[in-house]
Design goal:
By secondary structure, the chain is of the alpha+beta class. It contains 13 helices and 23 strands. The chain has helices at about 20-30, 45-65, 75-85, 85-90, 110-120, 165-185, 245-250, 260-265, 315-325, 355-370, 385-395, 405-410, 425-435, and strands spanning about 30-35, 40, 65-70, 75, 95, 105, 130-140, 155-165, 190-195, 205-215, 220-225, 255, 275-290, 300, 305, 310-315, 330, 335, 345-350, 375-380, 400, 410-415, 420-425. A hairpin with a 5-residue loop joins strand 22 and strand 23. It binds one RNA strand through strand 8, strand 13, strand 16, helix 9 and helix 11.
Length: about 425
RNA sequence: CGGGGCGUAGCGCAGCCUGGUAGCGCGCCUGCUUCGGGAGCAGGAGGCCGGAGGUUCGAAUCCUCUCGCCCCGACCA
């Protein structure tokens, strides 16, 4: 992409309404634009990152055996009356009437609807286990939206729902999501710590939140330090037997504020006690028959009717952008992990209009693009300093810097955004190096 | 939902107390110079002062109502 053809409305100054760094940077880099409290338009740069995150989530869910579908944003109130949650949910639920005065709602989550889909289509225990997920916009009419996309009213969420014949099998489904989440967040360059969590209004007795440690996190969290750097289990795991992975990650103390047990925490060796703030990016629940029973989600088993055991598993997809930025930025701007960066390489032409510079940049742009890299060519006639600042701000992982002085000797520079390291190398070598994914 | 605050140019703000028809910085446009970390000079465009009523000869400024947004707290993917 040539910057001159892209839509990238950068802001030099910080908008007054943004208090935390991720919100400020998302506004300044032109990723989002607020349209109402907690409601954002996704501008091209933000959308590119959102899509990359979405794709990683899809891939890891698929790897863990979940099947993707897509449910609507609008739901009938009657469906929620079946579970009793239409009354329970309160003001957070956005209620709407259609032209026929039918009561509807903008979905804050989809347990009822997925249960309805399941009970209407699945008849036999032989079709289980089953895990269905979708990635859809949701709306919760928060009393006080804040922190940009971290706590918006409209947000993009991945939610998966598992169906099993009994608790033992459901716990295996739970463990699969548990492992998948560790892999998912790891791919985004995040260190996510699973913590025992309150099940809240969704109910159930087994639940973990996946927490990213960040100073600006919304809640206080407490855990054993060793959990933070524990590597993700990876793809080479036995998806039917993950109890070991689960035990390994849950043996050490880790809890959010609501579930915090100061006594248990005090038993951790003092140098391993970690008291910090965290951002919740995922939440998994096992809730058994909470919805399947009142909504009659049953299958035929060998010995008669079985009420299915369910779990649900959420990932805050749009929230993850904020979380990643909170975890990865410096004074100059965002430092995107390569897996989710909006562009992989930025070409900075230090002397736009100079024949040699223009030609070299064009050649590099074509070569890298042909090699499959997502390249942003800063081809405006701004001064060098402005270009550096802009590319640092939007956080492209690699910068290919081409200027008249170096070019006279056939040299260009490669800069790593994360480390700040610069390497002067021959033009062809730079292309070869940056062509590698 | 309790408490506080703010709406004036694309962004950041001053002006309001003590009414006289709007200003600064950044950005934007033109030109010249400059050209390796957000350039300099000169010229220029852009605002029914969130909206509606009212008071007044006259309202960004005073009064009433309304809408929107932000912050602290309680609540939450």
């Amino acid at each position: 992409m040539r910057l001159s053809r892209f839509f990238l409305p950068l802001l030099k100054e910080n908008p007054a309404e943004a208090q935390i760094v991720s919100h400020r940077l998302m506004l300044r880099t032109g990723m989002i634009r607020q349209e109402a409290a907690g409601i954002y338009a996704w501008l091209p740069l933000g959308l590119k990152v959102l899509k990359k995150i979405e794709k990683i989530v899809e891939e890891e869910m698929t790897r863990a055996g979940a099947i993707q579908l897509l449910m609507p944003t609008l739901q009938l109130a009657d469906l929620w009356r079946e579970s009793g949650r239409y009354e329970d949910y309160g003001q957070e639920m956005l209620r709407i009437k259609d032209r026929h005065e039918r009561e509807m709602l903008y979905g804050p989550t989809n347990e009822e609807m997925i249960t309805e889909i399941f009970r209407g289509t699945v008849r036999s225990y032989k079709d289980l286990p089953l895990n269905l997920f979708h990635i859809q916009w949701k709306f919760r009419d928060e009393q006080r939206p804040r922190f940009g996309v971290m706590r918006g009213r409209e947000f993009l969420m991945k939610d998966a729902y598992s169906f099993d014949i009994d608790e033992a099998s459901a716990r295996k489904a739970y463990n699969r999501m548990f492992a998948a989440y560790l892999n998912t967040f790891s791919r985004m360059g995040l260190k996510a710590v699973p913590m025992r969590a309150d099940t809240g209004p969704i109910g159930g007795d087994l639940s973990h939140e996946f927490i990213i440690l960040a100073e600006t996190g919304e809640s206080a969290v407490f855990c054993h330090k060793d959990l933070v750097d524990m590597p993700a289990p990876g793809n080479d795991v036995d998806w039917d037997n993950l109890e070991g992975v689960f035990q390994e990650r849950t043996a050490l103390y880790a809890a959010t504020e609501e579930m915090h047990d100061p006594e248990a925490f005090a038993k951790i060796p003092e140098d391993k006690q970690l008291s910090a703030r965290g951002i919740e990016v995922g939440h998994i629940f096992y809730f058994g028959e909470k919805y399947s029973k009142p909504m009659r989600a049953v299958v035929n088993g060998p010995d008669g009717e079985i009420t299915v055991h369910m779990g649900s598993y959420g990932v805050g997809v749009s929230r993850l952008l904020g979380a990643i930025i909170e975890a990865s930025h410096d004074e100059a701007g965002i430092i995107w992990p390569e897996s989710v960066a909006p562009f992989e390489v930025a070409i900075i032409n230090l002397r736009q209009g100079d024949t040699a510079c223009d030609a070299a940049c064009e050649k590099a742009y074509k070569a890298l693009t042909a090699a499959g890299r997502d390249v942003l060519y800063h081809d405006s006639d701004e001064r060098a300093g402005a270009k550096f600042a802009a590319m640092d701000l939007i956080g492209v992982p690699w910068q290919l810097i081409i200027g008249p002085k170096g070019l006279a000797d056939g040299q260009v520079e490669i800069k790593n955004r994360a480390t700040g390291e610069r390497l002067t190398v021959p033009f062809d070598e730079a292309l070869a190096q940056l062509s590698k994914a």
